[in-house]
Amino acid sequence: MATGGNAIRGTRVGSGPMGEQDHGYHADRIAVSYWDGLGNETVRYFAAGLPEEEIPETIDHPQSGLPAGRDKENPPALAKAEPYKTHLAYVKERRTDEEAVQLLEDALTQLRERRGQ
C-alpha cells in the first residue's frame, strides 16, 4: 500500500472549511478617503466596528509618496524640497574667527561653572 505524505485519503491539499468568509473578506467594512496635497485620492477600508480614534488621520500616499489626510479641504502640505548646497555655500555660512573664539569662551565658562558646583 502506497501513501503519500500526511494527506488523508480522499482529500486535496488546500481544501477544507476555510473559505472567504473565514478569512474576513465578507466582514462589514467602511471606506475612508484620504487626499494628498496634489489632490490625489486613496481609499482605505477598515472594519465597521473599529472605533473612530483608531482610524488614522494621515497615511502615506502610494502614488505620490506624500502624506495624505482625511480632510479634503485641508490636505497635508507638500514636502519642501531643500535646494542642494555646494561646499562653498556651507563655507560661507561658517562663523568668523571672532565668533568662534567667543563661542569657545562661553562653553569653557559653562563647564567651569558646572565643575565648580
Number of E strands: 4
Helix count, per DSSP?
3
CA distance, first residue to last residue: 89 Å
Helix content: 25-40%
Gross morphology is elongated
Give the structural class: alpha+beta
N to C succession of SSEs:
HEEEEHH
Low-confidence stretches: none
- Record the strand order, biggest sheet: 2-1-4-3
Radius of gyration: 31 Å
What do these coordinates show?
The protein contains three helices and four strands. The termini are far apart. A four-stranded antiparallel sheet has the order 2-1-4-3, with no helix packed on it. The model has no long low-confidence stretch (mean pLDDT 79). By secondary structure, it is α+β, with helices and mostly antiparallel strands. 26% of the residues lie in helices and 18% in strands. The protein has helices at 20-23, 87-93, 97-116; strands at residues 29-36, 41-47, 58-60, 67-69. Residues 1-23, 57-82 are annotated as: Disordered. Pfam families: RbpA. Keywords: Transcription, Transcription regulation. It comes from Microbacterium sp. A8/3-1. Binds to RNA polymerase (RNAP), stimulating transcription from principal, but not alternative sigma factor promoters.
Would you summarize the structure shown here?
The protein has 117 residues and is α+β, with helices and mostly antiparallel strands. The protein has three helices and four strands. Strands 2-1-4-3 form a four-stranded antiparallel sheet, with no helix packed on it.
